[in-house]
Predict the 3D structure of the following.
Amino acid sequence: MFAAAQVITNRVERGEMVKAYQEARALVKLRSESAQAHFAMGYVARYAGMLDEARKECDTALRIDPGNYLFRSCAWAFMYMGDTRRAWEYVALDTGSE
């Protein structure tokens, strides 16, 4: 799952948003129980400006795998929407890593 999600996030970084979105949607459909799949979908949605969907997917990922520090970048979706309290919940996943 991690590798599949990494391919999707790499597509986002290369600007291949349509392909990344298609692959992320397919991954979530195939593995709806996977926190990593939902995180990848949230990542794509955030970069596409679909902030409500990004927040929903991030919350789903965190609900499935509470405390996973890799989800900390989800904080940006909440920050962009002005929800600093929720953003800090994601930042706190990586507390002590300074």
